[in-house]
From TrEMBL:
<keyword id="KW-0732">Signal</keyword>
<keyword id="KW-0676">Redox-active center</keyword>
<keyword id="KW-0560">Oxidoreductase</keyword>
<keyword id="KW-1015">Disulfide bond</keyword>
<dbReference type="InterPro" id="IPR036249">
    <property type="entry name" value="Thioredoxin-like_sf"/>
</dbReference>
<keyword id="KW-1133">Transmembrane helix</keyword>
<keyword id="KW-0472">Membrane</keyword>
<comment type="similarity">
    <text>Belongs to the thioredoxin family. DsbA subfamily.</text>
</comment>
<dbReference type="InterPro" id="IPR013766">
    <property type="entry name" value="Thioredoxin_domain"/>
</dbReference>
<dbReference type="Pfam" id="PF13462">
    <property type="entry name" value="Thioredoxin_4"/>
</dbReference>
<protein>
    <recommendedName>
        <fullName>Thioredoxin domain-containing protein</fullName>
    </recommendedName>
</protein>
<dbReference type="GO" id="GO:0016491">
    <property type="term" value="F:oxidoreductase activity"/>
</dbReference>
<dbReference type="InterPro" id="IPR012336">
    <property type="entry name" value="Thioredoxin-like_fold"/>
</dbReference>
<feature type="domain" description="Thioredoxin">
    <location>
        <begin position="1"/>
        <end position="145"/>
    </location>
</feature>
<feature type="transmembrane region" description="Helical">
    <location>
        <begin position="6"/>
        <end position="24"/>
    </location>
</feature>
<keyword id="KW-0812">Transmembrane</keyword>
Length: 231
């Protein structure tokens, strides 16, 4: 008669191997069709670049959103706007899952539309709400997304890695709060909403004055000194 411990060991190895294989297949399914994209508004070829590091659970980010939209509406062709994730995971436990959901919506071309719904309804899905995912699914349905694709890709390790990579970049830049803005690669020092709008206007107008050769995203001439972060 075979040693029962040997049989148990063989069964255990088979079960573990099968579990690992199944996990790998599921993970592959979640990543199917995922294409990493940057989230840009305005003119992608503009010489003035405004970059925001933001957190969907952050009340200050929600309050700043209409100001950003106002600036983009005013200087649409003269500015390139980039959105970057900086979920403050130590104090905002749902910020990272919200970013995953927005990225999944972005796979169907609805990142900024999903962002708008997250900010509009922020009080509904943030703590103490115990189940934000049901709200994320609701917003996806409102946008007419393919729910099978959304529910699959929101679990994508590629999406999660992207969000965490942008978080790590923000930390490497020394950022500690949101929203934080960069104007042509320089961290903005903002005291009021009007101050923000004035600095952007100066950058855009300088670009026009100097024939759209003012700066690149790494910095340059013709831009007001913009150092430090907001709220």
């Amino acid at each position: 008669m075979k040693n029962p411990w040997v049989v148990i060991g063989v069964v255990a190895v088979v079960l573990i191997g099968g579990s690992v294989w199944y996990s790998g297949q599921v993970s592959k399914s979640y990543n199917e069709g995922v294409v990493l994209t940057e989230h840009i508004k305005g003119n992608p070829n503009a010489t003035v670049t405004l970059t925001e590091y933001s957190d969907f659970e952050c009340p200050a980010c929600k309050q700043f959103e209409p100001v950003v939209l106002e600036v983009l509406a005013q200087y649409g062709d003269g500015i390139k706007f980039e959105y970057k994730h900086f979920p403050l995971i130590q104090i905002h436990p749902y910020a990272e899952p919200a970013a995953w959901a927005a990225e999944a919506a972005g796979q169907q071309g609805k990142f900024f539309e999903f962002q708008e719904l997250l900010f509009e309804n922020q009080e509904a899905w943030v703590p103490p709400n115990p189940a934000p995912s049901k709200y994320f699914s609701q917003y996806a349905e409102e946008l007419g997304l393919d729910m099978s694709q959304f529910n699959r890709q929101v679990r994508s390790s590629i999406i999660k890695d992207k969000v965490r990579a942008e978080y790590n970049t923000a930390r490497d830049l020394g950022l500690t709060s949101t929203p934080t803005f960069f104007l042509n690669g320089q961290k903005m020092n903002i005291t009021t909403y009007q101050d923000f709008k004035d600095q952007v206007a100066t950058a855009v107008n300088s670009s026009v004055e100097f024939g759209n050769v003012t700066t690149s995203s790494s910095g340059g001439t013709g831009v007001v000194d913009t150092t430090s972060a907001t709220n």
